Amino acid sequence: MAPTVLAARGVGVSYGAQWALRDASLDVAEGEFVAVVGQSGSGKSTFLHALAGLVVPDKGSVTLGGVDVVAASDAERTRLRRERLGFVMQHGQLVPELTLGQNAAMPLRLLGATRRQALANVMPLLESLGVAHLASRLPGEVSGGEQQRVAVARALCARPAVVFADEPTGALDSANGAVVAAALRSSAREAGAAVVLVTHDSGLAAMADRVVTMADGRTREP
Ligand SMILES: Nc1ncnc2c1ncn2[C@@H]1O[C@H](COP(=O)(O)OP(=O)(O)OP(=O)(O)O)[C@@H](O)[C@H]1O
Ligand SMILES: [Mg+2]
């Protein structure tokens, strides 16, 4: 069994008197692909945000690559996200004014690579995702599925330990969604990244090594 890269225990997040997340736990091994499923409002996005250090939990623990995410300072959490994590959201959140190549290369630029280095590094990934020929286009000039494949390249180019994907295919039809999810899985495997994928789609969940179900702010594994 591969070593654990991400471990969460009894995580809870409250907004005022309301618990958005009550008691969620998860272990992810290096390179593992985990799907998180559950009804709307069950706490999937909140859990993902807590795992990624985007919200600080009110109870429980999160450890990522040996770092205590809850005890870390804001600056440390930001650095952790930049250096160790990748994200693909429902809409790729690409910057409309930048070309697809520049969008994909953004994490490398933030880590200090020159424009040329960053682009050179991301091109093979765009190639393997079948979108390299679109690198000089703007996001508005390609399809939703193509945008999401660029977002997958962006999430993986800095070789993160874990990629978080919150319904990355939610805005796509099921055929395109399956293409993007398969691309995410194979590219993450090549890059050695673990994936935590939130999805409503049982077909996509079936691609995962493991499925975690959430209900009423709690995780449940079969
Ligand atoms: N910022 C917030 N303030 C108050 N309540 C919130 C906030 N964010 C989420 N919640 C509540 O917490 C619960 C869990 O929300 P969350 O977004 O995690 O659900 P989800 O499983 O991702 O749902 P969906 O499938 O619709 O995306 C919901 O009841 C939601 O209304
Ligand atoms: Mg959600």
Automatic annotation (TrEMBL):
Q: Which domain of life is it from?
A: Bacteria
Record carries keyword Transport? yes
Q: Where is the ABC transporter domain?
A: 6-222
Q: Which GO terms describe its cellular component?
A: plasma membrane
One molecular function GO term is: ATP binding
Among Pfam families, the record links this protein to: ABC_tran
Output the CDD domains linked to this UniProt entry.
ABC_MJ0796_LolCDE_FtsE (cd03255)
State whether keyword Cytoplasm applies: no
SUPFAM superfamilies, A to Z: P-loop containing nucleoside triphosphate hydrolases
Give UniProt keywords alphabetically: ATP-binding, Nucleotide-binding, Transport
Q: Which InterPro entries match?
A: AAA+_ATPase, ABC_transporter-like_ATP-bd, ABC_transporter-like_CS, ABC_transpr_LolD-like, MacB-like_ATP-bd, P-loop_NTPase
Q: List the PANTHER family hit by this protein, alphabetically.
A: ABC TRANSPORTER RELATED (PTHR24220:SF685), IMPORT ATP-BINDING PROTEIN (PTHR24220)
Q: What is this protein called?
A: ABC transporter domain-containing protein
Source species, please? Cellulomonas uda
